[in-house]
Amino acid sequence: MSSEWPVVTVDSVCDLIVDCVNKTAPVASEKTPFRMIRTTNVRNGTIDLSDCKYVTEETFEKWTRRAKLNIGDVILTREAPIGEVGLVVEAAGIFLGQRLMQYRANPVLLDSRFLLYAFLSPGLQHQFGSHEGSGSVVSHIRVGDCYKFKIPLPSLQRQKEISSILGALDDRITLLGDTNKTIHSIAQAMFKAWFVDFEPVRAKMEDRRPEGMDEETAALFPDSFEESGLGLIPTHWSARSFHEMIRVIGGGTPKTSNPDYWGGHIPWYSVVDVPSGADTFVLNTEKKITQAGLAGSSTKLLPFGTTIISARGTVGKLALTGCEMAMNQSCYGLRGNNNDIYFTYFSTQRLVEYLKQQAHGSVFDTITTATFKGVRVVSPPPSIIARFETNVEVLMERVLVNLKTLTSLAQLRDTLLPRLISGQIRLPEAQEQVENALS
In what helix (H) or strand (E) does residue 225 lie, and over which residues does it extend? Predict the structure, then answer.
């Protein structure tokens, strides 16, 4: 930490520090304008509002009696997990669930985004994760400790300059992530239109040209339906078990007691590596194995474009391999029998939705090969699958390129952040690196 910068307790530079109501809020059965942030929504400096629980207005008012959120407030998780941080960018109708702290910077003394980055720095993460001076790891952060975290405090102007540099990277990362969500939604909508709603077939039945489809592609679709075990499906399509559509690949874990098996260059996938949202592809993994580990265990090298589905534990999570990698035995790798990538991925996504619906609220706790055999799906001709691949490949390649760029920018941010917060790098040098990365 720069000797030129004073170190202060966070309560001395904040206008507001509030502990949430530590009681479970009753959840509404339908969507409302009022949403609850839980610890699972706070990750890596952001707050994901796409998977919030909804409450009534009465519950919202009761749970915000201590304070309502403002844009720019910083949120900290006290438990499960410890030390995740997020910046509030949308505040209307949002409130905090359990085990969360709310910080509001004094704008005369502290830039709110600088507070966010200070909380993300290794120094503060260490304070969150251990008792001061004892070195012992804690399972939760005590509320009293949340007022006394020590942060570096350069001048407000310097804080804003640091926030601007790191914020430029985060803004581009957010933009790329939002772009991927849009692209993924377009590809998903195309799959649904072709293979779930059969829109091209219905259009031809009504003597209309299928919307957004060229004549050559439209000619591949029939203009009528026929009865099947799944109800009406396009003529000359078939109903088959999902298992008949794919090749299933198992995983495995090299012996953890053998150091020659671990720390290599081969990514080894487990459910902790599930990509977030529309990122779809997994490019890197928390753990890596060696060639000896690959050869000495039941795990296999999955080629690019393999759909991975988690089968035990956290069930039904999906990823597409963005490079060659291995995986553990809690997952299956799926390869399409039509040499397809994206038809299999979106078909598996549809399968998971179906299995969740069939569970009717019961625990959805395992997937086996019998699961794949027990679900019948609509099987289109290979020519239509191939055309879908051609159309969607362009979209998904852009998702992959964006993800690689996003990952590179995140690595630069994570490299610069501790050095900027501690004053170990000159601002012009950091600014130049960011400008080069964004150009």
Answer: strand 225-228
Q: Which domains does the chain have, with CATH numbers?
A: 7-153 (3.90.220.20), 243-379 (3.90.220.20)
Q: Taking the mean position of all CA atoms in its chain, how far away is CA 39?
A: 14
Half-sphere exposure of 158 (CA within 13 A, CB side): 15
Q: Residue 47 contacts by C-beta under 8 Å, 6 or more apart in sequence? A: 37, 41, 75, 86, 87, 88, 89
Residues 423, 426, 428, 432, CA torsion sign: negative
For residues 159 and 2, the model is more confident at: 159
In eight-state DSSP terms, residue 275 is P
Distances (CA, A) of 358 to 25, 217, 281: 28, 34, 27
Separation between Cα atoms, residue 285 and residue 199, nearest integer Å: 39
**pTM of whole model > 0.85?**
yes
Asked if residue 81 lies in contact with residue 129, where contact means CB atoms within 8 angstroms, the answer is no
Q: How far apart are CA 139 and CA 410, in angstroms?
A: 28
**pLDDT computed for residue 129 by the predictor:** 84
8 Å CB contact between 280 and 184 = yes
pLDDT band at 133 (very low <50, low <70, confident <90, very high): very low
Phi-psi region of 229 (alpha: psi -120 to 50; beta: other; left: phi over 0): alpha
